[in-house]
Specification:
- This protein is an alpha+beta fold.
- The protein has one domain: Cytochrome P450 (Cytochrome p450, Orthogonal Bundle).
- It has 16 helices and eleven strands.
- The strands form four sheets. The protein has a four-stranded mixed β-sheet with strand order 1-2-7-4.
- The structure holds protoporphyrin IX containing FE.
- Protoporphyrin IX containing FE (HEM) binds next to helix 11, helix 12 and helix 16.
Length: 465
């Protein structure tokens, strides 16, 4: 499927009914039948959320598939559990599409993730990339995240919910100060709720007409209004020659709006859609990854100890590239066991072959769904030595955390900057341990982690560098 970009730009429909089918249905149209169907869908959604969050059953299932049939066609779905095959599928942009599966989850309109037309995807991705200043932005992001971590940790004494108390405030600050999208109604808590809800749409869409679906629509409408208001505000300020505007992504994009040399698909609506997309892909993903990384460091004391040592060295040499890379690798190693995204999806528009020329080669019929089990591949003993052990210094190609190829995570630099500062802050809380009881485990709403409480011995917290 190619996305038709010559269609009039999607308007900001603030009711966001996307995903609700408009096709005539042959099913019975009774209230009872609809309720029954919705209940079934909600039960299925809850089970899938559980599997996506706790991952043990997926680990077992993927291990069996990897051994018995690494490319397994079950019904209409191809399950891919080997790293080489996952990379092959991800690098065949035109043969394995993403947009079709996730478009219904993105009711605010076309975004780079929903574009399956290679050339247009490249153009739109490059447009967004053109407002990123890689080195300077990474420094800014580290500074924003470190500042928020220090503020939040300094408020704590002996006990802190690292999600509501640290990771969410960092994500909300990045949205406000780097993306340029202010908290809804000025409330950081409301914004964290909105981000958690939006993440569901990208990671696992709730059933149409369920309560989480309805509330995600409400939040998208709120976020869209906030983005539109901010765009109007910035346009007016730029027209008046205001030189004091903050240097965030939204402002940089609005500054481009008047440029007549830019292509016709770029305009105010594009800026709205891409800011909505960044909010949805870039808010709760950071929170979910931070939660999983902290959980796994607590689970692996040897990893936690190594992270503490590197974090303390980074305090002495802030920004040191070697130490930063070491801490990043420890975070990757933690996420290998419990990634933010255990699998990715594609659809296959026409018959093709995967792993051609190998013993496991498989014909994939057109119309199949494809599940890329990154979690399974990162635990493959054939490519990862002693995969259940926590080991520092594994090579980078062991990790499939941020995708691969033309769709590799756009916001990786944002996520890594935030994660490094969050982990640097948390691991240095003296005497860090899980809080007793259920508070010490991650609690999710849908697929969004909403709490994980830790204890530490000293009142207050470390002073960040
Ligand atoms: C630790 C946090 C994050 C993880 C683990 C992560 C992971 C991923 C993965 C695996 C993909 C590829 C999806 C696929 O091929 O199906 C992806 C794509 C993407 N990510 Fe992230 N992500 C994170 C944070 C972010 C952030 C903070 C942003 C925005 C600032 C972002 C924006 C995107 C976008 C726009 C794409 C689509 C790229 C394209 O289609 O060209 N992500 N991410």
């Amino acid at each position: 499927m190619q996305t038709n970009v010559s269609e009039p730009a999607v308007k900001a429909d603030l009711t966001f009914n996307g995903g609700a089918s408009t096709q005539p249905s042959t099913e019975p149209d009774t209230w009872f039948w609809k309720r029954l169907k919705l209940r079934g869908q909600i039960a299925g959604y809850r089970i899938f959320c559980y599997l996506m969050n706790h991952m043990l059953l997926f680990k077992l299932f993927f291990a069996v598939l990897r051994r018995m049939r690494p490319l397994a066609l079950i019904g209409n779905t191809l399950w891919v559990t080997k790293a080489d095959d996952i990379r092959e599928v991800m690098s065949r942009f035109d043969d394995f599409l993403l947009g079709e599966s996730i478009e219904p989850g993105m009711p605010w309109g076309q975004f780079m993730m929903t574009i399956d037309w290679r050339e247009q995807h490249a153009l739109e991705r490059a447009m967004l990339q053109s407002v990123v200043n890689p080195a300077a932005d990474v420094r800014t992001l580290h500074a924003i995240a470190a500042d928020e971590c220090r503020k939040q940790a300094d408020l704590a004494s002996g006990r802190i919910d690292v999600i509501a108390g640290i990771a969410e405030p960092v994500a909300v600050r990045i949205a406000a100060d780097y993306f340029g999208v202010p908290p809804l109604g000025g409330s950081a808590h409301r914004m964290a709720d909105a981000m958690a809800d939006l993440s569901g749409l990208v990671l696992l869409q709730p059933p149409v007409n369920s309560q989480p679906w309805a509330s995600s629509r409400e939040y998208i409408a709120g976020v869209t209004k906030a983005i539109l208001a901010r765009i109007a505000e910035r346009k007016a300020a730029i027209a008046q020659g205001d030189a004091s505007l903050p240097d965030d992504l939204l402002t940089r994009l609005v500054r481009k709006l008047g440029d007549s040399k830019l292509p016709p698909w770029f305009g105010e609506d594009w800026v709205r859609r891409y800011l909505s997309g960044l909010m949805s892909t870039g808010g709760a993903t950071i929170v979910r990854a931070a939660a999983h990384a902290i959980d796994q460091l607590l689970e692996h004391p040897e990893g936690l100890q190594q992270a503490k040592v590197v974090a303390a060295q980074l305090d002495q040499a802030p920004g040191d590239p070697k130490l930063t890379a070491q801490l990043r690798q420890l975070i990757y190693e933690a996420l290998r066991q419990r990634p933010m995204l255990p699998m990715m999806v594609r659809t296959c528009p026409r018959d093709t072959v995967v792993a051609a020329g190998t013993k496991r080669a498989r014909v994939v019929p057109g119309g199949s769904h494809v599940i890329l089990a990154a979690l399974g591949a990162m635990l493959d003993p054939e490519t990862v030595e002693s995969p259940s052990e926590f080991r520092a210094g594994r090579p980078d190609d062991v990790y499939l955390l941020f995708g691969y190829g033309l769709r590799e995570c756009f916001g990786r630099y944002v996520a890594e900057s935030a994660l490094i500062e969050i982990i640097r802050c948390v691991v240095q809380l003296p005497g860090l341990a899980r809080a007793p009881g259920s508070a010490g485990s991650i609690k999710y709403v849908g697929v969004a982690p909403r709490s994980l409480t830790v204890t530490f011995t000293a009142p207050g917290a470390r002073s960040a560098a």
